Every structure is written in C-alpha cells, then in structure tokens.
TrEMBL record:
Its EC number is 2.5.1.54. This is Phospho-2-dehydro-3-deoxyheptonate aldolase. Residues 12-262 form the DAHP synthetase I/KDSA domain. GO terms for biological process: aromatic amino acid family biosynthetic process. It comes from Aquisphaera giovannonii. Keywords: Transferase. GO terms for molecular function: 3-deoxy-7-phosphoheptulonate synthase activity; aldehyde-lyase activity.
Length: 264
C-alpha cells in the first residue's frame, strides 16, 4: 500500500509555502473554527502568528450537526482567509466538504482539510487525489486507524502523495470530554505509515482547560504538529466557541511546546 512503511521507509516531509510538515518538522495550525469576518480573522491571525503558529486555519464551509446552525461564509470566507494568510505570511488550510467544491476551494487554499464526517466520502477523496494540493485527513469519529489509512490510500492512489493524518478524537462511552483523544493512534500510525500525523486536541476534548495537556502529550508521543482552535471572543463565536483558546492561552501553550521540543 502507498501509505505503508514497507512502500516508503522514510518519513514523508510535506512542504507548503516553505513550511515543512513531518520528519521532525511540526505543523502548528491555529485559527478560528469558522471564518466570521475580515477584521476578526486578521486580528486572530496576527496573534497566532506572533505566538508561533505556522499555518492559519478557518472554515468557510462548515459541517454543522444542525442545519439551522451557521453554515459558513462560503467563497467570501475563502477570500478573507487567503487575505489573512497573505498578510501574515502563513499558508492556509480550510475544509472542503463536497467534490463539486474542490476547484473553488483550491483557488484559495494551500491545504485541503477533510473533516471527520467526510473521512469516508470516497468521491471527495478521489477528487482531491487528482489535485497536487496537500490534504489534511481527519480521522472519522468511529473509524479505526486502519480505516484512516485506507482513506489516505484513496487520495494517494490518484496521484496526490501529500496527505497529513489527524487524530481528532473518537466517540466512546466516556462523556467527560467531547470525544476521546486516542493518543496511541499517533505511534500506531507512525509504525504503519510514513505519512505525517498531527493531533487536534480542540475537537478531541472540547474543553479549553484540557487542550494544553493533550497538545503536549501529542508532541511527546511523536506527533508532527498540533491543530488548535483560537478565537479572541469565544462567547460570541459562531461555531465551537466553548472549545476555543484565547490568543494569550494559545501563546502560553506554544511556549510550553517549544520547551518540550527542546527537551526531546
Ligand atoms: C473543524 O476542524 O472545525 C471540524 C469541523 O473538525 P472535525 O471534522 O474534526 O469535527
Ligand atoms: Mn471546529
């Protein structure tokens, strides 16, 4: 299989606008869950950049549980994300939900994000496989690590060799966290695959006070980066406000991660 260590012994390193991901290079992805407006995103982008983030995130097409919840700004959101990334010199990542959106989203983004709910949207994965834009593939909430790697295979087999895996928590009986972060999936995936794997402690825990510990744990476990939702006014956020870190909390987390990386 193309994702396996047997096929490719060395860790895959993906370079996006000068930012390397994998093989010891950490992707520090940060930004709001949803793009809500230009001035707000510019403010958050400036702050996460200053804290040390190297990739800016923000959703323009949001996969909400309820159809009555904010669905995202669509193309206007993509334009704002691109502008913020360019202003602060950060590559950008945003979610694509449908094969018909691939061309549009590719015009604005540097990395495609496939959300947990679409990990097995095989038509989407095949369409992304035909592009040469890196794909961050999030683990489905009831998918095994093997399922995740098989989904990566859908992208790789179409010719796009740049896939980043992401552990974002799975559904279990435990209800103290939004999902259960499967920390062991990081060394498991690293053993089986050469692809980079990062962690998303924001969606995994759903709780700001648990995010720093799980982010440190992910890096200590060999993860290739951390994906964190940051908002300057979580109470007013249109999506995932309760799990957002304030920019200053994110800055403290980044400081801890830098110290940890030095120890390792
Ligand atoms: C997100 O990153 O905002 C998101 C919807 O994540 P997930 O697909 O992991 O739920
Ligand atoms: Mn979110």
């Amino acid at each position: 299989k193309l994702a396996s260590r047997e096929f490719h012994r060395e860790d895959t390193v993906i370079t996006v606008k000068g930012v390397k991901i994998g093989g010891g290079h950490l992707a520090m992805i940060a930004g709001p869950c949803a793009i809500e407006g230009e001035s707000l995103l510019m403010e958050i982008a400036g702050k996460v950049k200053e804290a040390g983030a190297n990739i800016l995130r923000g959703g323009a097409f949001k996969p909400r549980t309820s159809p009555y919840s904010f669905q995202g700004l669509g193309e206007e959101g993509l334009r704002i994300l691109r502008a913020a990334g360019d202003t602060y010199g950060m590559p950008v990542i945003t979610e694509v939900m449908d094969p018909r959106q691939v061309d549009l989203v590719e015009r604005y983004t540097d990395i495609f994000q496939v959300g947990a709910r679409n990990m097995q949207n095989f038509d989407l994965l095949k369409e992304l496989g035909k592009t040469r834009t890196p794909v961050l593939l999030k683990r489905g909430m009831s998918a095994t690590v093997k399922d995740l790697l098989m989904s990566a295979e859908y992208v790789l087999s179409q010719g796009n060799r740049e896939v980043i895996l992401c552990e974002r928590g799975i559904r279990t009986f435990e209800d103290s966290t939004r999902n259960t972060m499967d920390l062991s999936s990081i060394p498991v995936a690293k053993g089986w695959s050469h692809l980079p794997i990062i962690a998303d402690p924001s969606h995994a825990t759903g709780k700001p006070d648990l995010i720093p510990a799980m982010a440190r744990a992910a890096v200590a476990a060999g993860g290739d980066g951390v994906h964190v939702e940051v908002h300057s006014c979580p109470e007013k956020a249109l999506s995932d406000g309760p799990q957002a870190l304030l920019p200053e909390q994110y800055a403290r987390l980044m400081e801890d991660l830098r110290q940890l990386a030095e120890l390792m």
